[in-house]
Amino acid sequence: MQENRGRTADWWVPHPLGNYRHSFFISHVREDLTNVRRLKRSLDRRIRLSSPHVPPCFLDCDDWPHGKPTAPAIRDALGASEFPVVWVTPRFMNSSRGWIWFELAYGQLIEQSLNLGRPDWALPYVLAVFREIDIESVAPSPLLEYWGRSVVAAHESLNVAKIAERLAKVRTRHLPERNSPFAAS
Fold it and tell me: What global pTM score does this model have?
């Protein structure tokens, strides 16, 4: 694993720059699985067409490492992903399942580690997609900081294929910056 150009902090999370097993880690709730599966298929297909060597998306119901405890499995999958996508809906916000928040928190630690010594979000990692939700519903959560830099704004009524297209463009634009040892500090 490559260290973040020698800069570390006590909370720093190593990230395997350029050595990923997943293009995207899709964080979601079970109630949104139909759309999330469409997103995974569309992303995998789009990315495979442009770069055949790029690994597929991680989706827990398809790629979960059997027999591995939940917290280490999430940390390993996020750490091996180019970007996590948080699929935020009213069902996500109303869920009492804590693992989605663990995924976000660990993703934020990776994002902060990647940006150590840089302005916030110089190198984006956590990508939010807001669907059918308003800012008032998101405001009491840590997702509020992603509202203004969302890949898809809540008011946009894009189909899943268009959302996948946007995510793929973000990946194409930001991944080379992040993996370059010459990325601006």
Answer: 0.89
